[in-house]
Structure formats: C-alpha cells, structure tokens
Amino acid sequence: MTHWVKRAAATLFGEYELYHILRSPELDRLPSPDTHSPAFDISELHEPDECAASESGELRTLSTQFGSESIVLGARDHGRLVGGAVVWYGDRYANERGFWPLQADEAKLVNIVVEQKLRGQGIATLLIAAVERAAMFRGFQRVYARVWHSHSSSVRAFQKAAWCKSAFVVVCRPFGLAGPFRFQIARTMAGIQSPNDSHPINCRR
Ligand SMILES: CC(C)(COP(=O)(O)OP(=O)(O)OC[C@H]1O[C@@H](n2cnc3c(N)ncnc32)[C@H](O)[C@@H]1OP(=O)(O)O)[C@@H](O)C(=O)NCCC(=O)NCCS
Q1: Which end of the chain is more exposed for a tag (fewer CB within 10 A), N or C?
Q2: Taking the model in full, what pTM does it have?
Q3: Which residue segments constitute the domains of the chain, with CATH numbers given?
Q4: Residues 87-99 pLDDT 10s
C-alpha cells in the first residue's frame, strides 16, 4: 500500500523532498551552558586537517566545511575524533545553501555526524548542546537545522536537546513543471507532538 501511495505521489509531484525544520531554544535563555561529559570531550575545531585524517568518510566531509562564517565542533573519545557538527551563518549560509531564511542573529546547523560504531550514546545530543553554546557566545539568538523527514535518530537527538519542530517543508516538481516548488507548513505552537514522537517537544521560547 505504502509503495503504491509513494508511486502515485511520485507521478503527480515528481521527485519530492520532505524536511523537518528544527529550531533551538532561544539561546540567551539557556538555563546552563555546561555541556561537560565525563565520556567525551567536546570542543571547537579550528583546523580541518584532523577531520581530513579521519577513517570515517562522513567525518572527512567536515574538513570541507570550515572557513569564514562557520563554527565547527568536534567530539573526541580518548583524543580521537568521533563526531562533529558544523554551523554556517551570514553570506556563507545564504550563498552556499540558502534553504532556510535566516535573520542576522540566526545560524544554521548544516552538518552533524557521529562515527557509526559510537552512535546511540548521546554524542550528537552533546554536540547540539555545544553548538548552542558556541552560537550563543557569538551573539546568535537561534540555530536551525534541516532534517530529512524520516531520519528518526537525528530528529530524536535534536528533541533530546530540547529543540522543537518549527516547520515541515515539501519541495517538489509537480506534473513535470520546471520548479522546484516549495510548500511550508509552520508549527508555531509550543509543545506540538506528532503521534510518532515518544517524547513531547519542549519548545522553550
Ligand atoms: C544522526 C546522528 C548524528 C545521531 O548521532 P548519535 O550520537 O547516535 O545521536 P544520540 O545518541 O545523541 O541520539 C540518537 C537517538 O536516536 C535514537 N535512535 C537511533 N536510531 C533510531 C531509529 N531508527 N528510530 C528512532 N530513534 C532512533 C537513539 O536511540 C537515541 O535516542 P535515545 O538516547 O533516546 O535512545 C548519527 O546517526 C549520524 O552521524 N548519522 C549519519 C549522518 C547524518 O545523517 N547526520 C544528520 C544529518 S541531519
């Protein structure tokens, strides 16, 4: 059934993309900036070489995302890089991605990755908290992230960090038209919870 629904949608709407837009709490209202973890060392990275030398292909992609108007955080396990997160803002984000409109005091988390064998231990959640702290220190009020609609582990990591679903975005090229066309469903109320969410989304405003 799901297969036929997907085929019908693809025929009508062409190739389509479905994303959750998640947003951080207001950063100047964070109760505590502490992201200390006894298990993993989270800190800002300034040199791409450490990422470029990683055995993980996903972590190596971080090395290309350093540079102007970026913040890169790394997670280390006994000194070894096991995860990272990248934030872009200003012209860097507008020119290279520009998917989500940002105000001057907003930034966008453009990548978060954890080495495969260490997933499920809360490293992404720690990185997200560190992203908030680093963005707050630079004067940002809010950080956004775009997550593929069915990427449950990623959505879950953001929810554990108290981010909330801010919008759902559909990008499609219906009936073979040139497009792409974009539809956005805003979620503006605090505490909206979808039936599949195991925890309420706690929107701190
Ligand atoms: C997404 C990613 C960064 C999460 O990293 P992580 O360190 O495993 O995340 P956390 O451990 O902080 O949280 C993951 C949560 O999702 C849960 N989870 C894992 N797989 C899941 C699934 N298929 N369905 C639902 N929840 C899932 C975990 O159990 C955990 O929740 P819990 O602590 O309540 O049990 C990691 O999976 C990754 O690097 N993926 C590849 C790169 C990527 O897709 N990045 C995201 C781009 S938006």
Answers
A1: N
A2: 0.86
A3: 24-162 (3.40.630.30)
A4: 999 999 999 999 9
